[in-house]
Design brief:
Helix content of chain B: 55-70%
Distance between the termini of chain A: 72 Å
CATH class of chain B: Mainly Alpha
Bound molecules: protoporphyrin IX containing FE, copper (II) ion
CATH architecture of chain B: Up-down Bundle
Oligomer: heterodimer
Strand content of chain B: under 5%
Shape of chain A: elongated
Largest interface: A-B, 56 and 70 residues
Radius of gyration of chain B: 24 Å
Number of domains of chain A: 1
Number of helices of chain B: 16
Order of helices and strands of chain B: HHHHHHHHEEHHHHHHHHE
Shape of chain B: globular
Number of strands of chain A: 3
Distance between the termini of chain B: 52 Å
CATH superfamily of chain A: Cytochrome c oxidase, subunit III, four-helix bundle
CATH topology of chain B: Cytochrome C Oxidase, Chain A
Strand order of the largest sheet of chain A: 2-3
CATH architecture of chain A: Up-down Bundle
Largest sheet of chain B: 2 strands, antiparallel
Strand content of chain A: under 5%
Largest sheet of chain A: 2 strands, antiparallel
CATH superfamily of chain B: Cytochrome c oxidase-like, subunit I domain
């Protein structure tokens, strides 16, 4: 039996690449939960609001004020761009992960910063992401040109709300990728950059899937 | 190479130098915890001051106050909105989780810091910004909003609905939205840290109940704050972009507002889907803490550790299914109301389990009535008293009568307000030695306890009666309502009690600051407790365990272990061989 209390400790070791990667991915998974809740909540508002009639004060009758919005075809093009960017993102993720794994086991990590001769997938993804956002902006302009403003009808309110909220989230992804680029310029270790890119990649895929969901909701539950 | 690669991450070594990096934009969870704590302390002083103004107004509605003049009825509504918002968000959500959770979760599980220190810093500064934005609402034209902490539409959704519903209300919503983002960043850190950074041997079922409580609270926050954020965004759009999510066809002063077809009940659903879990966000950390303290100061293992964990989990789970009990008045179908009613009463089961386990822990213990212990026992008392009125309110037929009365005010102040505040007090007295290296003064602590304990009951118990007599909540001119005229003496008594209770809080504030400088020096383990924070130096070094990581070999509540050399065995002590 314990007579003299002996408190046990071991030396602290800094987390290695695998641990840091796992931890960051777990963090991302947790972070996606409230994003999901946000859009679940918007969806429930969408469904509820769609079913509500309103009083017409002139006739004193209950009428519907939900006018289905005809979505611009451009949104389909944008979807294509976003899916492509997701593919580019995946390639960028694998590229830098390989570099990081090589770096984490060999002592030539600093050398592998030199990305010459490789496809700049990261840059391609950023460009595609920005094109998507620009495309969404153009789609808004087309909606407005067709007479659908934010407050025209509840359905158009939701179109702007959902596309807007999604765009803001995607911008977060673009900022993270730009950060990874800045890290490269600052010659931060490839492992750190790889973790940023890896986590952003999963986030990016999630955003692509979320967009497809939003598009389906707006198109099929008009 | 490998070591220098991790240098950026490795907070185990160099502590930051310079005032700004160390105390302002610190990445150290302990400093961030203190920042949250002092933010909440500031907020609670403001919130208390507002409540005093309200109480004075309630008995002398026309008496002009120094500096403020006469309080108009709409000003009363502003005061109560700001009081409620400050208390719920910036005190009860901020101190137990952001403050003590931040400081002690990593230490109690044997980690050097939170999983994402930068995010942790951001979460504090975001919360701080939210507080500043909220207070700004007092100073803009029209003043602070009138719509209560629940922000019911359409009042909250129309700029023209009253003074304070202009810029003041926008600031209120923006503040809440900012708060949500800060709270979500915090929750992310708590969950990842708990799941991935526990020391060797610290299995989930060896975690102190405090850690369980912070963990479950974080999950609730993670699921709830996103929904509140969504509601806030929709509300802002209704107010500023002319949409009609929440506003039906209404007129203000005979003028059509231009909105139509929206649903005020949609706001209520979204708000309370957040709002009910929020009350558990406020109280779960206090539950975890009191379990801890009752065990430490009874020198007995907690009664039913597993039951406590499962009770907290089921409270958290059920907490998401009962939001409709705030909406019995909304004209919902009686069947729906019945379902919400049953679910609500079901929460009574895990709550009762916890209560009996607390009593079981005290039973035949070698009780040590220190200040933290007194506040922990006080918590149990308030939890029971406040909880008893819950099943009454959960009956739709009764709630239709009681809903907008002071009965509700009495109920939630006791169970959510004062009980959680007692948790915060208990935590402060208990962990002060670890945080500041000195003991708080016990005599002042006990005086503070008795004044607050008796005072809180004196304020809130009579409110039940006032409510049953149909004394209205959120109503400033009660003195002029015929059917409660005869209760004016009772109202006066409540106000005097509030005055005395609030005044006695300055004993605590004095004790806090005085003890930081002049308190008795604390040893590393002054309470003879078992959890890991008491194995490290006082105050803990920057990386918590000075380049080491503890190895955990025992559960968190090994008190009075037969055969052990002293009456407690710490979590990282030699393993106890249990013979059954
Ligand atoms: C010093 C002790 C306190 C006193 C004297 C006090 C007093 C009051 C009063 C007079 C009201 C207005 C009731 C009405 O007319 O509807 C009120 C409302 C409220 N209080 Fe307190 N309070 C105290 C502490 C707290 C605490 C610790 C909390 C934390 C939960 C809290 C949360 C609230 C909330 C949420 C409301 C409702 C605001 C609303 O209707 O929107 N109070 N309190
Ligand atoms: Cu509730």
């Amino acid at each position: 039996m314990a007579t003299i209390a002996t408190t046990a400790t071991i030396n602290w070791v800094a987390p290695d690449y695998a641990t840091r990667l796992r931890r960051s991915r777990l963090g991302l998974l947790v972070a996606l939960t409230p994003v999901l809740m946000l859009f679940v909540s918007f969806t429930s508002a969408y469904v509820v609001r769609q079913g509500l009639p309103t009083l017409d004060p002139r006739t004193n009758q209950l009428v519907r004020d939900w006018i289905p919005v005809k979505l611009p075809i451009l949104l389909l093009v944008n979807t294509g761009v976003l899916v492509l960017s997701s593919a580019g993102m995946e390639l960028a993720r694998r590229q830098i992960k390989n570099a990081a794994q090589a770096g984490a086991t060999s002592s030539t990590a600093e050398v592998s910063f030199n990305d010459e001769g490789k496809m700049p997938w990261l840059g391609i993804t950023i460009v595609l992401g920005l094109s998507f956002l620009f495309g969404q902006w153009m789609a808004w302009k087309q909606l407005a040109a067709n007479g659908f403003y934010v407050a025209t009808t509840p359905s158009s309110s939701f179109v702007y709300l959902l596309t807007g909220a999604h765009a803001v989230h995607l911008m977060g992804g673009v900022v993270a990728l730009l950060l990874a680029g800045v890290f490269a310029l600052l010659r931060r270790p490839v492992t750190t950059r790889s973790i940023v890119v890896d986590v952003t990649a999963w986030y990016w895929h999630f955003m692509a899937a979320l967009w497809v969901y939003i598009l389906c909701l707006l198109e099929f539950a008009r | 190479m490998a070591t220098h690669e991790f240098a950026a991450q490795a907070h185990a070594h160099a502590a930051p130098q310079g005032f700004i990096r160390k105390w302002i934009f610190s990445l150290d969870h302990k400093v961030i915890g203190l920042q949250y704590f002092f933010l909440a302390l500031t907020a609670v002083l403001v919130g208390m001051f507002l409540s005093l103004l309200m109480r004075i107004h309630l008995i002398w509605p026309t008496v002009p106050l120094p500096l403020l003049g006469e309080i108009k009825p709409e000003t009363y509504l502003s005061l109560l909105t700001m009081h409620g918002t400050i208390m719920v968000f910036f005190v009860l959500t901020t101190a137990p989780q952001g403050g003590f959770g931040n400081y002690f979760l990593p230490i109690q599980i044997g980690a050097p810091d939170m999983a994402f220190p930068v995010l942790n810093m951001l979460s504090f500064w975001t919360t701080f910004l939210g507080f500043v934005v909220l207070l700004a609402a007092f100073f803009v034209t029209g003043g602070a909003p009138l719509h209560g902490w629940t922000g019911y539409a359409p009042l909250s959704a129309l700029q023209s609905a009253g003074p304070g519903e202009g810029l003041g209300a926008d600031l209120w919503i923006i503040s809440i939205a900012i708060f949500c983002i800060g709270a979500l960043m915090g929750a992310l850190n708590f969950i990842t840290t708990t799941l991935d950074m526990r020391a060797k041997g610290m299995t989930m079922m060896r975690m102190p109940l405090t850690c369980w409580a912070w963990f479950i609270t974080a999950i609730l926050g993670l699921l709830a704050f996103g929904v509140l954020l969504s509601a806030g965004i929709l509300l802002l759009m209704d107010r500023n972009l002319g949409t009609s999510f929440f506003v039906p066809l209404v007129t203000v002063n005979g003028q059509l507002t231009g909105h139509k077809g929206g649903s005020p009940l949609l706001w209520q659903h979204l708000f309370w889907f957040f709002g009910h879990p929020e009350v558990y966000i406020a109280i779960l950390p206090a539950m975890g803490l009191c379990s801890q303290l009752l065990s430490v100061f009874s020198r007995k293992p907690i009664f039913g550790y597993k039951a406590m964990v499962y009770a907290m989990l089921s409270i958290g789970f059920l907490g998401f299914m009962v939001w409709g009990h705030h909406m019995f008045m909304s004209g919902m179908s009686p069947y729906t109301a019945f379902a919400f009613s049953i679910m609500t009463m079901a929460i009574g089961v895990p709550s009762a389990i916890k209560t009996f386990n607390w009593l079981g822990t005290l039973w035949r213990g070698k009780l040590r009535f220190t200040s933290p212990m007194l506040f922990a026992i006080g918590f149990v008392s308030l939890f029971v008293t406040g909880g008893i009125s819950g099943p009454f309110l959960a009956q739709p037929v009764l709630d239709i009568y009681l809903h907008e009365t002071y009965f509700v005010i009495a109920h939630f102040h006791l169970i959510m307000g004062v009980a959680s505040i007692f948790g915060i007090f208990a935590a402060t007295y208990y962990w002060f030695p670890k945080m500041f290296g000195r003991m708080m003064n016990e005599t002042l602590g006990k005086l503070h306890f008795w004044l607050t304990f008796v005072g809180a009951y004196a304020i809130f118990m009579p409110m039940h009666y006032y409510g049953m007599a149909a004394g209205l909540r959120r109503y400033s001119q009660g003195t002029e309502v015929a059917w409660i005229q005869h209760l004016l003496p009772l109202q006066k008594f409540i106000t005097i009690a509030a005055f005395v209770t609030i005044a006695s809080q300055f004993i605590f504030v004095f004790n806090l600051f005085w003890s930081m400088k002049k308190g008795k020096k604390a040893s590393d383990n002054p309470w003879e407790a078992t959890t890991l924070e008491w194995t490290t130096a006082t105050p803990p070094p920057h990386d918590n365990f000075g380049g080491k990581t503890p190895v955990v070999r025992n559960g968190p509540y090994e008190y009075s272990v037969p055969g052990a050399s002293r009456d407690f065995v710490m979590q990282s002590d030699e393993e106890i061989k249990k013979k059954h």
